[in-house]
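Structure representation:
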Amino acid sequence: MLKVEGGRLTLDPLVADGPAVLVFFRFAGCPACNIAIPYYQRNLQPTLHDWGVPLVAVSPQVPERLGEIKSRHGLTLEVASDKDNALGRRFGILYEFDEPSRQASLANGPGIGAVTGTGTWELPQPAVIVIGRDRHVHFAEVSPDWLVRTEADPLLEAVRTLLEAAAPPAVRAVR
């Protein structure tokens, strides 16, 4: 992944100290994304930050265009570009516009590949994924409807459960 501010973002540092949460979204100008990402900033970021859990919003849009959503909403969470949809493809969350959708998109302006800067008709479905320190997916919710997003509470519960499972057992007093 490419950070909006420059540089690369890889999984190893994200999960070095525990789980990480990835929120996949379509692109910076997506109306539903402009509601969802600030919602996650308000309702997930403070708690996850307190728990030491990174929250990353991920889109295939090129970093030069993706920075718009971060600055527009004053986001403090990490925003990253999934170059060539590589991560979305690995998770199996991509969809490609069918021909009628392509024609409708082109009738209203440039195709989605021009909007994202990727030159393709692929976008991720809205998804939230919790990856543990073990690099396994411990929670995933994917919506085929671009207007439906995961609420904060089940996501926080999944992270809490993962953190509690990783916590060392309580030390028993010896008498």
About this structure: Residues 128 and 141 are 6 Å apart (CA to CA). The chain is about 40% helix and 20% strand.
